[in-house]
Amino acid sequence: MKTAFVTGASSGFGRAICRTLIGKGYRVIGAARRMDKLQVLEAELGDNFIALALDVTDPLSIESAFEQVRAASLQIDLLVNNAGLALGVDRAQVSSSQNWQQMIDTNVTGLAMVTHKVLPQMVEADSGMIINMGSIAGTYPYPGGNVYGASKAFVRQFSLNLRADLAGTRVRVSNIEPGLCSGTDFSVVRLNGDLEAVQALYRDVEAILPEDIAATVAWIAEQPGHVNINTVEIMPVAQSSAALNVARNLPRCF
Ligand code: NDP
Ligand code: 8X3
Predict the structure, then answer these.
(1) Cα of 225 to ligand 1 centre, how many Å?
(2) In this model, does residue 89 exceed pLDDT 80?
(3) Is the CB of 57 under 6 A from ligand 1?
(4) Hey, is 19 helix, strand or coil?
(5) Residue 88's pLDDT is what?
């Protein structure tokens, strides 16, 4: 039986990915900070789901989580680096430095450090797959995207650079870059619980659902061993790129 390790398993994409992978016959280690949510999932998914407390921003928590995996003699075949968050939509010049720090700690440092734990055993086994959760925000700039988008640009480049370092091994790395998705806590967290603003964001739009992302993860994982899906960019049909902004009537600088 293959073992998957899914971060951010307590809600949204992560929870849907756990459900889908269990359905595909995986043993799934679902990790997050909120153990109460993971225990509900454990009750739903049964013995092949293992709930694991993990704060990806805390080196001691990462150490302890992987010590538990090692103690259980589990070899991770598939790492899904999904834990992440956006905090705020303010322009950079007025945004919170604490929010910036938390996004960097989670989306950049956390993702890198979890990967660092898993890579040696995958290389030794000459087998394994890492699927990172990037975002269209890592490619397309938009007002208020500042550090969140930059953190996802890190995820994109880190994924490609991992491939460069893993050349000559059978370890595979993919990056999924979703656009507007509903049915997760992402916007509730980003907009600090302002449910009216969350509703307005998704009003009259058929957004991507967590199950669509979970199906994408499953599709990537099912590819034959000689195929590496580098990047999947996925938007709802209702979303597309907008024109570049031009600020008119700016005072002349001379
Ligand atoms: P959710 O808020 O529903 O899920 C985020 C998950 O990340 C939760 O399970 C949360 O668990 C976990 N998490 C956050 N911080 C930490 C931490 N320090 N340590 C461990 N786990 C943590 O959002 P989504 O499911 O939408 O987001 C999942 C990923 O998808 C994120 O990386 C996000 O950036 C990305 N994404 C989302 C999009 C969207 O529109 N929804 C679009 C593009 C990308 P807990 O709080 O229990 O720790
Ligand atoms: C989430 C997608 O467009 O809100 O990563 O940044 S977006």
Answers:
(1) 28
(2) yes
(3) yes
(4) helix
(5) 98
Which whole-number Å values give the CA distances from 44 to 6, 51, 214, in the listed order?
16, 12, 17
Pocket test for ligand 2, best of 107, 135, 155, 209 (most atoms within 8 A of CB): 135
Q: Which bound ligand lies closest to the C-alpha atom of 178?
A: 1
CA–CA distance, 81 with 111 (Å, rounded to integer)? 6
- pLDDT category at 254 given cuts 50, 70, 90 is confident
Residue 253 pLDDT: 85
Instruction: Tell me the CA–centroid distance for residue 220 and ligand 1, in Å.
Output: 20
Distance CA 50, CA 235 (A): 31
Number of the ligand closest to the Cα of 52: 1
Spell out which residues line ligand 2, taking CB within 6 angstroms: 135-137, 179-180
CA distance 64 to 168: 31
210 Cβ neighbours under 8 A, 6+ residues apart:
12, 13, 15, 16, 17, 181, 183, 184
Which domains does the chain possess? Answer: 3-234 (3.40.50.720)
> Is 140 assigned a catalytic role?
no
Per-residue CA distances from 89 to 59, 140, 180, 206 (Å): 28, 15, 15, 22
Whether 196 shows a pLDDT value over 80: the answer reads yes
Nearest CA to ligand 1 atom 12: 8
